[in-house]
Design goal:
The chain is an alpha+beta fold and about 230 residues long. The protein is about 25% helix and about 35% strand. It has two domains: about 10-115, Pseudouridine synthase I, catalytic domain, N-terminal subdomain (Alpha-Beta Plaits, 2-Layer Sandwich), CATH 3.30.70; about 115-225, 2-Layer Sandwich (Alpha-Beta Plaits). A hairpin with a 4-residue loop joins β11 and β12 (about 225).
Length: about 230
């Protein structure tokens, strides 16, 4: 017999981080961990109707596996009005270290996904000389199109890595590349940008760590990424 679920009365938007070794967790691994954390924390999450109800959780703009992030987002519907700081503390305690709740707010009108227009990334390349990185970035930005190939489940796909890059520069303190990437289809990832940099400049394939620093609305003029929680 089909069971009637309590209706949602509130939506909460959650910003979380993937840090350390947890950056290698897949999106599906995180979904399982988060749904377990909801139960442990006693969050009154709403469920869908039907014979196989599932929690009403909407994930948006997930970072690729292997990338760290300080700005991952999701939205949940709850059957009781909740205090966002209390939900934040309870979920953070229920999640493993490295999957960390950064902020929880009550959702306003509009779509969260529509506000995630771009990402700011940091790519650390500890073994790359600053001069080589600077030359690679200059060569990349000078090109109108930088085609790269990526292996997908449907085979090799060619995409233009240059069209997505709004701003890119080298931080000599790193050496680290800082870049703002526009969200588009197909998605351009930090690894795609690195592939383009290497192809144009002969930059060596060295170890790197990509970290998403921000994700939100894009200011095209300034080349900056805003906070999607701001009205």
């Amino acid at each position: 017999m089909e069971r009637t679920q309590a209706p949602p009365v509130q939506k909460l938007r959650i910003r979380f981080a993937k840090r350390g070794r947890l950056r290698f967790a897949s999106h599906r691994d995180f979904q399982r961990a988060f749904e377990r954390a909801l139960r442990r924390a006693g969050v009154p999450v709403a469920y869908s109707q039907g014979f196989t109800p599932h929690p009403k959780v909407s994930y948006a703009g997930a970072a690729p596996m292997g990338a760290a992030s300080e700005a991952e987002y999701l939205e949940i519907a709850v059957t009781e009005e909740c205090d966002p700081p209390a939900v934040s503390a309870a979920l953070d305690a229920a999640l493993p270290a490295g999957l960390d709740i950064v902020d929880v707010v009550v959702a306003d009108h509009g779509s969260l996904a529509d506000r995630l227009q771009a990402s700011e990334w940091s790519i650390e390349l500890p073994d790359a000389p600053f001069e080589a990185l600077a030359a690679a970035v200059k060569a990349f930005l000078a090109e109108p199109v930088v085609e790269v190939q990526r292996m997908t489940k449907n085979g090799i796909r060619t995409l233009d890595a240059r069209s997505a890059v709004v701003r890119m520069a080298v931080d000599p303190a790193g050496p680290t590349i800082r870049l703002v990437v526009r969200h588009q289809s197909p998605t351009v990832r930090p690894d795609d940008v690195l592939t383009g940099l290497r192809r144009l400049s002969g930059l060596r394939d060295t170890a790197h760590v990509a970290t998403r620093l921000a994700q939100g609305p894009l200011d095209e003029t300034a080349g900056t990424v805003g906070d999607p929680f701001n009205p």
